[in-house]
């Protein structure tokens, strides 16, 4: 394999790249942090999957997360939960843990940025042009999915960091001894999420098919070290396949619709809704050309080919019906890297004006997604723009005496779970515990909206009966419509699922 830094002495290592482009990396990190905070990240209400993480690390010990949890609960390996459990034990708040997630995502972006700068320096035999450096800073720092999901209390940030380390160590190492370190990192990624399995065929095709490299001593050591750190993932995989295969199959329920869903969710930062899908079309087209342009038939061992193989492996998941675009956070820096390579190549061919126009289109999509992350009225995911503070203000402003809150949304009961002894809140039928003592509540709030249980007619009929029971003999005193989805009618026509324009409705009974 050609060594990435050989053409330019100042870039012989990542340390050299960090020194040569320190200003670029600092600018990327600063702009990424500013964009994330401006979009309402870190200090915010949790979303549904984060509540699962938070409740899990509060009720499970580290030992249980290592042994019992993989055998009985989630389809995800437990490494990320162990990380958040450790951070909680250190005393970090929710916001403190989100800052750690944001730092992991930033590190993944910076690793790929250093990698792409080294690749360009190698191709040019000189330092990277100022134009390309500026474009790289903007593409990496304003990556829409990284901004919207980079602080999540989920597995995405840790997985993105580990995949970035894996790629950087394999492509950037100057000898097999250093390259061997990418194996244990890949194993840790497998102990974080099963998507790491996609890296295996990508690496095998690249190493053996394109690089034409195979040495028994290296291969044996590499995959043994990978397997050792992947034990948590392998242990979880056994229990999932042996006892919870149905849960794994449910991850692929999107069918062919997964393709446009993932494209819109990824390039639209999990923020732009179906009514705004036209915004991402130019970026999708430009990236398609960038990916094709990265194919180097004269040099099969080109490091960019590993990035393309990772993309191709991920595409098989999408075609199979995996419709969860925020799971692809690890691809956000990879996509920025391929776009940077494409724009630099175009500039080197004398197409400076074209580069500026195309880069402007991509960045316009990024900015549009970022400004819609927290408060858009055309949301990609409806519960991502719910004004929870308005709901809490409505409850606090109307409550008198003892209070019961029944909700089809998990966030409100979680936030209210320990605020006062006079208030009891529950998610769906969890609110039944509030009635066990036969206590009569002075104020009752019913928070209702579409959820993942809405299509289960039996559950929803039972819930309606439960609400009718707890509100029997009460008068509805006020109603609040919380959150607006201007795409509700369009989504209803496309999916056949009736959706209200208001994302949640809060009824107050007394």
Write the layout of secondary structure elements.
Layout: H1 14-20, H2 22-38, H3 48-59, H4 62-66, H5 68-72, H6 79-89, H7 94-124, H8 130-141, H9 144-149, H10 156-172, H11 176-179, H12 182-190, H13 199-210, H14 216-229, H15 231-243, H16 245-249, H17 258-267, H18 281-293, H19 304-319, H20 332-348, H21 352-371, H22 388-398, E1 403-407, H23 411-415, E2 423-427, E3 443-449, H24 457-470, E4 476-484, H25 488-495, E5 502-509
Parallel strand pairs: 1-2, 1-3
Antiparallel strand pairs: 3-5, 4-5
Helix pairs in contact: 2-7, 2-8, 3-6, 7-8, 7-10, 7-20, 8-20, 10-12, 12-14, 12-15, 13-19, 18-20, 20-21
Overall number of domains:
2
Strand content bin: 5-15%
- The residue ranges in which pLDDT falls below 50 over 5 or more consecutive positions are 1-11
Instruction: Round the Cα radius of gyration to an integer and report it.
Output: 25 Å
> By helix and strand content, what is the structural category?
alpha/beta
- The first-to-last residue Cα distance is 74 Å
Largest beta-sheet details: 5 strands, mixed
Count of DSSP-assigned helices = 25
Mean pLDDT: 92
Question: Considering DSSP H and I runs of 4 or more, what fraction of the residues is helical?
Answer: 55-70%
**Principal-axis shape:** globular
Largest beta sheet: what is the strand line-up?
Answer: 2-1-3-5-4
- Number of distinct beta strands: 5
Give the SSE string.
Answer: HHHHHHHHHHHHHHHHHHHHHHEHEEHEHE
């Amino acid at each position: 394999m050609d060594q990435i830094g050989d053409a330019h002495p100042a870039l012989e290592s990542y340390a050299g790249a960090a020194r040569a482009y320190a200003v670029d990396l600092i600018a990327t990190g600063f702009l990424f942090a500013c964009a994330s905070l401006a979009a309402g990240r870190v200090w915010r209400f949790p979303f549904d999957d984060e509540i699962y993480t938070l409740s899990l690390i509060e009720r499970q010990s580290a030992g249980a997360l290592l042994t019992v949890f993989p055998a009985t609960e989630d389809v995800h390996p437990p490494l990320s939960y162990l990380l958040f459990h450790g951070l909680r034990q250190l005393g970090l708040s929710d916001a403190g843990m989100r800052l750690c997630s944001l730092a992991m995502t930033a590190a993944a972006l910076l690793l790929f940025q250093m990698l792409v700068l080294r690749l360009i320096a190698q191709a040019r035999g000189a330092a990277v042009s100022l134009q390309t450096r500026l474009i790289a800073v903007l593409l990496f720092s304003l990556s829409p999915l990284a901004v919207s999901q980079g602080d999540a209390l989920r597995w995405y940030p840790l997985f993105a960091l580990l995949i970035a380390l894996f790629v950087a160590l394999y492509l950037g190492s100057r000898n097999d001894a250093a390259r061997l370190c990418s194996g244990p990192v890949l194993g840790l990624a497998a102990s974080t999420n099963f998507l790491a399995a996609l890296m295996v065929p990508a690496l095998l095709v690249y190493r053996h098919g394109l690089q034409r490299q195979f040495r028994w001593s290296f291969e044996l050591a590499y995959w043994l070290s990978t397997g050792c750190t992947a034990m948590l993932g392998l242990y979880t995989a056994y229990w999932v396949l042996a006892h919870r295969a149905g849960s794994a199959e449910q991850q692929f329920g999107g069918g062919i619709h997964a393709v446009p869903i993932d494209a819109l969710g990824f390039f639209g930062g999990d923020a732009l809704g179906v009514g705004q899908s036209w915004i991402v079309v130019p970026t999708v087209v430009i990236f398609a050309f960038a990916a094709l342009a990265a194919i180097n038939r004269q040099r099969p061992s080109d490091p960019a080919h590993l990035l393309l193989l990772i993309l191709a492996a991920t595409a098989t998941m999408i075609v199979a019906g995996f419709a969860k675009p925020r799971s692809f956070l690890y691809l956000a820096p990879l996509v920025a890297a391929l776009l940077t390579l494409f724009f630099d190549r175009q500039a080197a061919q004398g197409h400076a004006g074209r580069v500026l126009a195309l880069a402007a289109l991509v960045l316009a999509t990024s900015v549009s997604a970022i400004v819609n992350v927290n408060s858009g009225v055309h949301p990609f995911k409806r519960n991502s723009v719910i004004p929870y503070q308005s709901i809490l203000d409505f409850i606090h402003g109307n409550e008198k005496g003892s209070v019961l809150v029944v909700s089809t949304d998990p966030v409100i009961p979680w936030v209210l779970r320990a605020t006062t002894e006079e208030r009891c809140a529950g998610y769906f039928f969890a609110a039944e515990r509030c009635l066990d003592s036969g206590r009569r509540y002075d104020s009752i709030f019913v928070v209702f909206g579409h959820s993942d249980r809405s299509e289960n007619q039996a559950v929803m009929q039972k819930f309606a009966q439960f609400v009718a029971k707890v509100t029997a003999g009460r008068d509805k005193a006020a109603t609040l419509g919380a959150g607006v989805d201007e795409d509700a009618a369009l989504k209803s026509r496309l999916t056949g699922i009736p959706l209200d324009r208001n994302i949640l409705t809060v009824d107050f009974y007394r």
